[in-house]
Every structure is written in C-alpha cells, then in structure tokens.
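Treating backbone geometry as a discrete language has practical consequences that deserve illustration. In the encoding step, the backbone of a single protein was reduced to a row of integers, each denoting a local shape. The amino acid sequence and the backbone structure tokens for this protein are reproduced below.
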Amino acid sequence: MKKTVEKQMLLGSSFVLDPVKTFECGQCFRWNADDSGVYTGIVGNSVYKVFSKDGNTYISGDIADTDELYAYFDLASDYSPAENFSRYSCFLAECIEYGRGIRLLRQDPWEASCSFVISQCNNIPRIKKIVETLCSNFGEEIGEGHFSFPGAEKIAPLSEKDLEVLRSGYRAEYILNTARAVCDGTLDLNELKKIPYREAKNKLLSVRGIGEKVANCILLFGLGHVEAFPVDTWMKKALKAYFPEDFDPAVFGDYAGLIQQYIFYYSRSGGIAEI
C-alpha cells in the first residue's frame, strides 16, 4: 500500500490543463473555485485543490497515487491533433482556440451517471446544489466538511420520499432507476467501458430516465467513449448556426467529445450570444 503524503504536484502547463476551462465546461459538478481562483474538488475519496501559478497548473492534497490523478485529468492523451479540425470552419477554429486547456476528466462511472441524470433540464448551479445535497445526506464524511459520492448500492434501496431532501423533482425517480439498474446488473458500467460506443449507448437508453443527451454525457465523461457528442440547448444553437444540416460528429473521430467541449464552452461563454 502506498503511503499517503501531503504534497503539491505539478500537473502540467496551463496551456495543457487550464483549471477554469476544465472545471467550468459543464463536464463536472464537484469542483468549485474560491475568491482567489483555487478550485477544491474530490477525486475518489480524497479532497484536492487545483490552481494555476506562473503558467503552470498544480494539485495539492493528500496525494497517495499520482497515477490515479494523471488518469483522472487524462494527461497521457495528446489533444494537439484536434487542432487539425480548425480548418473545418472559422467558427470551429475560434472554439478550439478559446477552449485550449480543457481536459476531458475521467470521472467515476457511477458518479458521472447519477450526476448527468440529475443534470437533465437543469442549470449548473442547481445541479451542483442537488449533487452536494445527495453527498452530504447519503455519502461518508471525508474531511474538511466534504463528503464522498454515495455508491449506487446506497441509493438503490431508497424511496422517492427519501430523496425529497434533494428537491430534484421528477429526477428522483430517474436517480433511483439508474442506481437499481447498476445494482441489479442491467447496467454493468465497467462492461460499458469496454463494448462499442453504440452498443453501450443502447444499454443506457434502455433505462427509464436516460435519454440521448444524458447517455452521451455518461459515455463521454464517465465511460471514456471519446466519440460521444452530447447535444444540449447550447450545442443545438451552435450546430444550427454554424454547421450544415447533415452534419455528423463522426467526422471528428476520436476527438468528437473533445470538439464538443470546445464548442460548448465557447458557445456558453458568449460565442453565440447574438443568436
């Protein structure tokens, strides 16, 4: 067993990993910045702080497994080939330039699944509030007033009445459906990582409460299917305004999910505010 050591670790240049862009691009809900721009979040059952200084990005906390953190931030992947798609259109070139520094976080499959079920027809501040209420009521305290994300096995036996504390509305049923599907084997999340994208998506869509957009978010952010291309309201606006009617994100291949994040982040940050 590796000894836990309190330390600070360099994750890379801010050009490669920009905390603001990575944590504010709609892919995660448990990283929050303080007034100085330092983000506090949870990976596994450990609390970390991430910040930029002098052009580099660092993480600090009880770092026991550097490999886990490198994997979480997807630091082994080279994103530079995605820049070749700048030639697709001027708009896409702007999105890629603006979003450079986003990393696709390799999140826990169950946490991503539950979080994106909560996310449907919802805004990010409210999603964050529901997720934190879920954790504080049903997770385990892990220090500094933070709580672990409760496992599917903890949620599955609950009732909709139990989840009223979340104030999640109709989503409570969907949270329970998803937890129970994970626990009874209908959704084997580890297996969904390994099988082809379309097959994995069909399995997710078989669960009541998981639609096309949520399924693609789970596939991209929790299961590592980088060809997934979630489409929400912002994406619909961008696709309608700047892409042909017969556009197929498959043209971006294994960079489709990353390109989606560039487009989403740029659009949500004001890139298509005039539409």
Summary: The chain has a mean pLDDT of 94. The longest strand covers residues 5-13.
